[in-house]
Amino acid sequence: MKYFIEVWGCQMNEHDAETLSGIIEERGYSKAENYLDADLILLHTCCIRAKAEDKVIGRIGVLSKLKKKKKHLIIAVGGCMTQQEDVARYIEKRFKEVDIIYGTHNLNEFASLLESAKADQKQIKAVSDSEGMDIREYVPIKRNDKLKAYVNIIYGCNNFCSYCIVPYVRGREKSREIKYIIQEVKELLDQGFKDITLLGQNVNSYGKDFKDGTNFAKLLKELDVLGDYRLRFMSSHPRDFDEALIDVIKDSKNVCHQIHLPLQSGSDKIIKEMNRGYTKKHYLDLTEYIYKVLPEATISTDIIVGFPGETEEDFQDTLDVVEKVGYDQAYMFQYSIREGTRAAKMTEQIPEAIKKERFQRLLELQNKKSLERNNKMIGKIVEVLVEGFGERNNLTGRTSGNKVVNFKGDKKLTGKLVWVGITDANTWSLFGKVKGE
Ligand code: 5AD
Ligand code: SF4
Question: Is 3.40.50.300 the CATH classification of the domain at 2-126?
Answer without folding.
Answer: no
